[in-house]
Each structure stands twice: as structure tokens, then as C-alpha cells.
Model the fold of this input.
Amino acid sequence: MSILVYAEHDNVSIKGATLNTVTAAKAIGGDIHVLVAGQGCQAAAEAAARIDGVSKVLVADNAAYGHQLAENISALVAELGKGYSHILAPATTNGKNFLPRVAALLDVNQISEISKVVSADTFERPIYAGNAIATVQSTDAIKVLTVRPTGFDAAAATGGSAAVEAVSVAADAGKSTFVGEELAKSDRPELAGAKIVVSGGRGMGNGDNFSILYSLADKLGAAVGASRAAVDAGFVPNDMQVGQTGKVVAPQLYVAVGISGAIQHLAGMKDSKVIVAINKDEEAPIFSVADYGIVGDLFDIVPQLEKLI
Done:
């Protein structure tokens, strides 16, 4: 039994979600090969070779993979994946984009966002916004899985010494071209991988009031998130959204400020190790998952909290 793990990377380093996906592969059992596809990605391949538990790294270094276009990546993974029993990718925006195409090309089912490995053919995944866990068994010859990073600990990024092998498959589907990208730049940690997250909701009132969360987050070394209600109201950009239709996070500490706690939001953060909720409504659903709750005006409490820190 052999497993192909698709690596998330920036051509230089391996993203944290890949380490969680390798842990899921370890739970399945068998040889673990990691695919690094990109352009000028040798440094990322060398980083992948050092991940504990990886036996081989496949490198597809070609201009066709430089911008991770789903049409090109899916053709590559489907071709290489024919020789594997399992194909895994992190359940990130990128993984959710290309892996369903891989499943279609291989004519198998995809199992999305697994959070636990029961056996080599049986997995658990959240359904109904995380309010229930489904146990799913696959009889397909090739199991195609996206992995919810928050469901698995990260594998050690060092300690491995995998062989690195170049692959010659170059698949340019010619169906799409890269036009450009706008990247949000911030000195704060990346939201999906941050150890501390401070999030604001509709109770913040407006986008300007998020400045008090930014100030608190900077003192904590935290990332800043938001509920869908805050995003829909135009307070903050949608790349800050935490929840079922946003980013799923599981930091060591999650501070929810002015967030009522709709189930869609809870689905994206309730696996956090410690949850602190600040809300003036003592009946707010967020308190049902909070380890610590403060009922009161956030505009009084947050400055006091920052002063104490």
C-alpha cells in the first residue's frame, strides 16, 4: 500500500497543512510519497524530504505548475496517482479546487475533509456544519481524500531523509492561464496556522472598530479573524472569515469578540484548545462552546484586557 500526498508550498518552503496531511497518511499506513509541483521548487522539495515519515519526494518542476492551476495540477496528480492506493491533499482552497477533478479523472469518489482515520478504507468526516460525524467506507481501488488539517497533529518537519526524484510528466491543459493575483500582506501570523486567533463579529459595529482587535492581536502575537456576519456587513475582507464557508482554525487560544456563535461559525473554530467569548448577550450560543465567557460590553472589556496583557 502506497500513499501520494500533494504538498502545499510556495516553491521555497512547505506549508503547515501538508504536515497535518502527512500525519493522516501515517495513520493509514504504508509508504508515503510527497508530490511537490511548481516552478523553481527545488527548495520546497528538499524541505519535503526532511518531513518525518516520508519515504520519497516526487518533484514536478515545470512552468505549467508555476501558479497551481487546477486544470494542470489535476491532470498531473491523476496520472501519477494511478500507481497509488490513496491520494491525499489538504482541505485548503487549492486542495478543494483540484482534487475533485482528480477523482473525476480516475472515476472514483472523493471523501472530503476527513478528520480521523479509522482504517485504510474507513474515515470520519464532519457533516451538518460539524454537528455530526459521518463514518464513511470506500470500496474504490484508489481512495481520494482531502484532509482537514485541524483534525490531525502536524508531522515533524525535520528528521526525515527521503529520496528526491524528478518526474517528467508535464500536463498543460491549455484551458486556463494565470492573469494575476493580489496577496494580502500582514505582519501578523497566517490565520489558518496561527496559535492564537482574535475574531470579531457583528457586535463590532463597523470596520473601524476592528482597530481595537488589531491592537489586542499585536500584543498577543495573534491572527485576526471575523464571523461571516462581519464580512457580509463589509467590516473586513472575506479572507478573514472563520467558519464553515471560511477558514477552519484550531489554535491554542481563540478569542471571540462580539460573535453570537451561529453554527456555521462554530464549525470553523470549536476545535480550538481554549475558547474565550466576550458578548453582551448572556444567551449567545458562543458561550456553549467557550471555556471562559465574559458577559459585557466589548468596548469596555477589550481595552481592559489589552491593558492587563
